[in-house]
Amino acid sequence: MKYLCSFCRAFLVRNYKTSKFYLPRYSINCDRFYSTDNFGSGRKIYTDLSQYPVERIRNFSIIAHIDHGKSTLADRLLEITDTIPRDKSNKQVLDKLQVERERGITVKAQTASLIYNYKGEDYLLNLIDTPGHVDFNYEVSRSLAACQGVVLLVDANQGVQAQTVANFYMAFESNLVIIPVLNKIDLKGAQPDIVTQQMKTLFDIDPHTVHKISAKAGTGVEELLHTVIEDIPPPNGSREAVTRALLFDSTYDQYKGVVGYFSIIDGMLTKGNKITSYHNKKTYEIQDLGFMHPLEEPTNSLYAGQVGYIICNMRNAKEAQVGDTYYLQNTEVQPLPGFKAAKPMVFAGIYPSDQSEFNSLRNAIEKLTLNDASVSVHIDSSPALGQGFRLGYLGLLHMDVFSQRLEQEHNASVITSCPNVPYKIKIKGAKNIKKFTTDEITILNPCHLPDKQMIVEMSEPVVTGTILMPDDYIGDVTSLCLERRGEIIDQSYIDNKRIMIKLQLPLNEILIDFYDELKSLTSGYASFDYEDAGYKVSTLVKVDFLINNKAVDELSIICHTSRARVIAKNVCIKLTESIPKQLFTISVQGAVGGKILARQDIKALRKDVLAKCYGGDITRKEKLLKRQAEGKKKMRKIGKVEIPKDAFINALKR
């Protein structure tokens, strides 16, 4: 039997003397997993899951703010349970994506099934390592739907952060058991007493119940594992009930098709079973199924309470609806409660560099959105960039990571337009006997904003933000929030030095560089998190940008009237820095309607046509200069200006 490395897809080789599998030393394409020749040493393979009744199954997630040690704790748990060899090189084993390894952050929630012997009995522990950045909050919400408890991780050095607060309340509202854990207690600057007091103030957690560990050194991790088994309840399902399975994640394999990750709620699934989707009513035959250990481990059956993968010859990526209920053919079931649909907060156009690659880009987006269901897709077109898509993201980092994954995983060369937020516009509708009626539309692209005479009212999205920081910086942060049209709702101390600010902000004002500026003002000590707070009526205008008197629709933005002139000037300056010089002068203008608010010129590159002239009559030089001037005038009329990819985002940075 051949085995594949899930990271580099290289075949593992069996050593028949030792009966163990390993990756050939000279054929390794990745250094993330089992880079030594002792693959599988001390590692048990379990293929029969029937021996684990529901009472000995625990499903839990690790949730925390970014960089608080979730992936490091997951590594130690994998080592303690002998799922992977104990090796100092094990770092972020569950972070399988290239973008995760490059950036050092978790982007995708990853599942691993662990087998651990506690008090003489083997327990099946299904661990889900979740992202920590607010842009990937949807991954956390999907993970919690498959769990009965969570490990809430807090850095003993940094203390409670904004995303910690958001994750706690998300788990609390889902009625999950919360195990509070203090990580990095071995650091020199650790303040465990102060941080536990913060947790008591914010979450009403008893300081005596907080586990103190060091995930890097492994201190206290095994005791934490015992608490997970003792405190987190087993799943509620039953093997005797009618089979129901919840699809909580999926991915696409070019050889296997759609690989779905399921939480088996009731009953059991076996190879050869025919399962039906409640969403599209289509029936599929199970070709293969198993669990993640952390690689794919095939098994014959999955039982109630367990989490695993299923391959059922599903080739169309659109058929895998995350949150869908699957059941055995010819049975009747009630659908399981799915997830709240992800609400995109940021929209941007994405276009192929070459229009001949449009179909390839469409296929790449379909496969990638299968793995990231929070991205919404709409067909879009641009006079300058041609046919493309307008994608909705949960934030700017989400947009950046998605574009990077398109290039790395699907070799797609794309151009991304300026990011913007959705606006709700009330326009004049059909005319009644006395007056016009009003219709409400949502604008995803500033280019589609109706004529000013048609608009009755405009609303912009607002968010409720949470800022945690030392009180030394409260003056600078308050000024920043007021500058971005923020309204402070509440301020409260969580300990003697740290303060939490609740405020309401227009989403458009925090879209590009608010977080960077906040970190700069507070020397990196502040943390920021936000959640959707609906729409608010505002006075907005569309600012158009013209390159040599030709409007570039992809650069158009909608902003508040009080900031139109400042933004127009700043964007014009940024464009002059991003657009390369040509042999003719380029004018960059920002305008609202027919009124020019700002202008910057990019001076022409000067070619010395007199370099070869030495001596002779002056009329010869005048003739050459006149011919050059006429040529530049002609070039200005017909010349094309290419705008670099990064100019669209750089232009909006303040």
UniProtKB/TrEMBL annotation:
Which Pfam families is this protein grouped with? Answer: EFG_C, GTP_EFTU, GTP_EFTU_D2, LepA_C
Q: Which domain of life is it from?
A: Eukaryota
> How would you describe this protein's topology in the membrane?
Peripheral membrane protein
Its protein name is Translation factor GUF1 homolog, mitochondrial
Q: Where in the cell is it found?
A: Mitochondrion inner membrane
Family stated for the protein in its record: Belongs to the TRAFAC class translation factor GTPase superfamily. Classic translation factor GTPase family. LepA subfamily.
- Cross-referenced HAMAP family: LepA
- Under the cellular component aspect of Gene Ontology, which terms does the record hold? mitochondrial inner membrane; mitochondrial matrix
Biological role stated in the UniProt entry:
Promotes mitochondrial protein synthesis. May act as a fidelity factor of the translation reaction, by catalyzing a one-codon backward translocation of tRNAs on improperly translocated ribosomes. Binds to mitochondrial ribosomes in a GTP-dependent manner.
Question: Which GO molecular function terms does the record list?
Answer: GTP binding; GTPase activity; mitochondrial ribosome binding
Q: What class of enzyme is it?
A: hydrolase
Q: Tr-type G domain spans which residues?
A: 55-236
- What EC number(s) does its UniProt record assign? 3.6.5.n1
Which organism was this protein described from?
Patella caerulea (Rayed Mediterranean limpet)
Q: Which reaction does it catalyse?
A: GTP + H2O = GDP + phosphate + H(+)
InterPro entries given in the database record: EF-4, EFG_III/V, EFG_V-like, EFTu-like_2, G_TR_CS, LepA_C_sf, LepA_CTD, LepA_IV
Instruction: Read off the SMART domains from this record.
Output: EFG_C (SM00838)
Q: List GO BP terms, alphabetically.
A: positive regulation of translation; translation
Which of UniProt's keywords are assigned here?
GTP-binding, Hydrolase, Membrane, Mitochondrion, Mitochondrion inner membrane, Nucleotide-binding, Protein biosynthesis
